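hi! just following up on the protien thing from before. the input was this:
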Amino acid sequence: MINSKQKLVVIGNGMAGINTVEQILKLTDKYEITVLGNEPHPNYNRIMLSYVLEGSKTIDDIILNDLQWYADQGITLYTGKMVKSIDGENKKIRTEDGLEIDYDVALVATGSQSFILPIPGKELPGVIGFRDIADCSAMLEAAKTFKKAAVIGGGLLGLEAAKGLVNLGMDVTVVHLMEDLMERQLDREASAMLKTELERQGIKFAMQMQTAEVYGQDRVQGLRFSDGSELEADLVVMAVGIKPNIQVAVQSGMETNRGIVVDDLMRTSVPDVYAVGECVEHRGTCYGLVAPLFEQGSVIAKHLAGADTEGYMGSVVSTKLKISGVDVFSAGEFITQPEHTVIVAKDEWKRTYKKVLLRENKIVGTVLFGDVSESASLQKYVRQQTLMTDEIYGQIMGTGCSKDGAKSLSAETMADDEIVCGCNGVTKKTIVDAINDNGLTTVDEIKACTGATRSCGGCKPVVEQILQYVLGDSFKTSAKQGICGCTTLSRDEIVEAIKTKGLTTTREVMNVLGWHNDEGCSKCRPALNYYLGMINPDTYENEGDSRFVNERLHANIQKDGTFTVVPRMYGGVTTPEDLKKIADVSLKYNVKVVKVTGGQRLDLIGVRKEDLPKVWEELDMPSGYAYAKSLRTVKTCVGSQFCRFGTQDSMGMGEVLERKFERLDFPAKFKLAVNGCPRNCAESCTKDIGIVGNDGGWEIFIGGNGGIKARLADSLCKVKTDAELIDIVGSVMQLYRETGQYLERTSEWVERIGLEEIQKAVVHDTDHRQALVERIEFALQQVEDPWKKIINDEDSRKNLFEVVTPSIV
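and the predicted 3d structure came back as:
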């Protein structure tokens, strides 16, 4: 049988090329598709590399289309193939290793590469870009050995690289030529706020510095600047821009400038050869952001499928920063000019900034910092240059409501072809059609069907808005999501069923409540284990198999398979005797690193699994629970015992609280801090519970977080006595234990429950507070130190920690 399909060959296996293929597959099946990629990986999400670098995702997590997807679609994939040229006359594509492939239509999607500054020393080992998995892997490897990193470039990529390296434990300095960070996307105000926030997260900056040379012998040792000053660095990341990959086009005789020149249908100067993505130059512009690339791919897909298309007219560029704890967005014009009308709001307490620029009353640009919830709406308004109205003003400035009193949904006014998920190029229409055609009722179902939210998750609020818009009145009942894919039941429904039905084990819960997956999953099993233990602390027997590996083994596993042991130091205070034991044990068991933590304790890093029980026994100190969803640390300043400014005994109170509440399970890790005065040296504002001493007693703060989703704590109340302080701290803890969702930090819990509701429960309603205190006291009577339990249990030591060498028959 003669194959009537046309041969489409795609040069490049990145996001732009494969997204174009996905759009073609939705419109037509007339092509036999071959993909040539020069990397050894299937298609992955390049813009998620910063998350891999910072450790919140793995390389497997950012794969968009695995190898099975190519097979299922009938696509022939070649990885590790570098294309040499396209023979337009004979319609053949040739690779560097001699492979020759015929085509009817070719698509060039070769992307871009990091621009490396043409300065002396750029070729030294340790100088890399930040563009692909290989670069990311090189940084991860370097961080194991080297400590000082310099990132050249204070733009989007540079800041993402810097934060990732900080998270890997490196001392990182961003070197930037200009006066402001991200000066191509942000105004001076937002740039200054961004710099302050990133400094708070540990990044250093060398602004208005021009790098003249990379110096070093066998490896990079540092940077030398044009003013003669130097910066030590044993890793240098160049993130000063990107350069379109046009080598194939040049070798093939295509018209090129900075990029491969294309027309509005994305056609190159060679017949039947198209180009898409960062390698392209359209109307004199090269785009380095993902949304324009998907818009280009949509044009190509429609054209090749024979559908009507107006062609690609260019894109309004928008930028969103992907750094944990930092939300930044800009679109269109952002620098104020005399002809602009400016709408601006700045909140230094909440660390938010919002600016909208108008020209002749049309919305032409915006900058958002801290709160980017209106980014989708504003991007549309900027692209369409919408006239400002009172209704739009109310919407974007947070004062507008619809007729029924609810804030208007931006999803209702979005165009069908507007891209909602920039990471995966999913439009509003795709989501709406998926909901209507497949009866979808949850965001997770939309993610599985369309890919929206499966990457960075930044579009999830808009996807939820679209879901609510489509489902209308049925949204609240239909859109309920379970705690995982194994069940449609919520946390509250499961807890209520455990209480009313007397359920006692995770398997019993799953059987009685009709789990879709009989074995559960890694999300629900630990959650059920926690809920059962919280409800019945005296009778429930902990199920070790339902806990994460760190909690099963009572130590933090490291990337090389060894473990970190963290003994308890109450309130951050220790003794010479305990320090000597730590030193002796570290030497005896060849501990690789002893590190002082941010929680005022000592990490013993690099303990072998089989040595853990012996290390615990010889330390003869309680577990610091650094691995657990439990009370981690109570950080203290020296307080009134030693500080001339101290008004309260912070060290004494810190020790009392830590000894009282240690070992108790919580929905997520839990940290406290106690300050002896309002100078806040122990950083109470970023703790789950922060306590600040003053002349009249104590002030209690809750819901702080200095991690991935940074949040300043809210003031709960002021108390005069130590006894009242301990009771309210205990009641807050128990209320969180009883109402928190598993893995939900207090920063999220406070926002979900509401500060006023928590105050009512633990401050104003003294009877309710006392009941909470009694329940937490009862739970505390059931806990014991896990290290001692393992030491005294020969079977547990043997089953969990002894290494069994397999016999050879």
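The first strand starts at residue 6 and ends at 11.
DSSP finds 28 helices and 38 strands in the chain.
cheers
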